[in-house]
Amino acid sequence: MRDNCVIQLQIFYQLQKLNNNVNSKFESCLGSSPTRIEILHQLYNADEISQSTLQKEINIDNAAVTRHLKQLEAAGLVSRRKKAEDNRVTLVSLTNSGRQEIAASLQAKKSFIEQTLSGFSASEQEILLDMLSRLSKNVSTVEI
């Protein structure tokens, strides 16, 4: 039987490797960065949202959200306008092209997830979800 410390290090290494691989493949599958996809999904669920609220929802700094929105606006996926009652507030919404992009990304995301979990039974998926939830909880309580 292998040393428990060696097994734990291998688990940790495999988790890091899996995370990097999933992020890379998922980004390639969707053709966009995870942050941009998250911005588009937030906008998909709201008719219109203030840029500052969006920035808080996706938890990135103001300059980064502005940069992403400018690029998405240049691509015709989002539109921005100043709020009539308060010119300091910028409102953001998806364009029709943006809505179509999200619909396509949802299908690509579904296909990616199905392929990733291929070969896992429903009960194995439940067990995996439980284990990952416990790992996530443990990580959140690690004292640094």
UniProtKB/TrEMBL annotation:
What are the protein's UniProt keywords?
DNA-binding, Transcription, Transcription regulation
Q: Which domain of life is it from?
A: Bacteria
Which GO molecular function terms does the record list? DNA binding; DNA-binding transcription factor activity
Which intervals hold domain HTH marR-type?
8-137
Q: Sorted alphabetically, which CDD domains does this protein's record hold? A: HTH_ARSR
List the Pfam families.
MarR
Q: Is DNA-binding among the key words of this record?
A: yes
Please give the name of this protein: MarR family transcriptional regulator
